[in-house]
Amino acid sequence: MSRYAFVAYKIIAALFGARVIETRSPTYGHDLEAMLAAITARTKLVFIANPNNPTGTLLDQRKIDNFISRVPEDVVVGIDEAYFELLDDPLDALRYLREGRNVIVLRTFSKVHGLASLRIGYGVARRELVDVLQKTREPFNVNGIAQAGARVALEDVAHQRETKRVIDQGRAFLQEHFVDLKLEFVPSAANFVMVNVGDGPAVCQQLLQRRIIVRPLTGYGLPAWVRISVGTMPENEKCIAALKEVMRN
Q: pTM here?
């Protein structure tokens, strides 16, 4: 996995005694050439989050196509598409399954659908891999209410479109103000932006005192950075106003 990949991959792998190999990430995204070079005969699984959390970076279809074509057939590639519905031009990761590749595509109802509290997501993979997962999954992993909500959410296209519109508008607003504040940030394809505020933990505490919660990234080895989620426009405006005050101080 990338050095700045979603930290849960590393934590869960460690819980199961797996050796985690982190590859370089000079642009805060996935360096696919470095990941290919790190694969050995003992490698079992490669994780790619696209867009990536917490950096918001996005790989294009051509780069992932090239990567998938060069990964050894016995290595599983997990493609985490939690923010898939937020993309203007979504990638077709399911195509790799139609081609018989050893890939699992992971998606969630916690983002554009707004069902985070129901804790429901899904994976699509080859039958052989699904059979293995069925043997090892928790017996009560998804409840009936979550499944009912998910079915309705899939059909509510108007809600998805409106959510994407609000996020696109809010993300642009945040990034424009980061430019005005002369703060370095990573252009994002997700519903958050990673921004360099100099002292992440201190800024988080100052914002928390103003009833605004942002995510410090010290655990990713990025102590100068924070991740700010896109909210409604009044929330975005409140966040920027508070951030300006904190940065002045």
A: 0.93
What does the pLDDT look like over 1-36, one tens digit per residue?
999 999 999 999 999 999 999 999 999 999 999 999
**Full residue range of the structural domain in which residue 207 is found:** 158-248
Same domain, 139 and 193: no
Place of tokens 């490669």: 46
Give 190: exposed, middle or buried? Use CB within 10 Å, 0-12, 13-18, 19+: buried
In order of 7, 55, 104, 229, the CA distances from 168 in angstroms are 25, 16, 28, 12
Domain boundary among 155, 170, 195: 155
Q: How confident is the model at residue 141, as a pLDDT?
A: 86
Q: Are residues 168 and 53 in the same domain?
A: no
97 with 19, same domain: the answer is: yes
Q: What is the pLDDT of residue 111?
A: 96
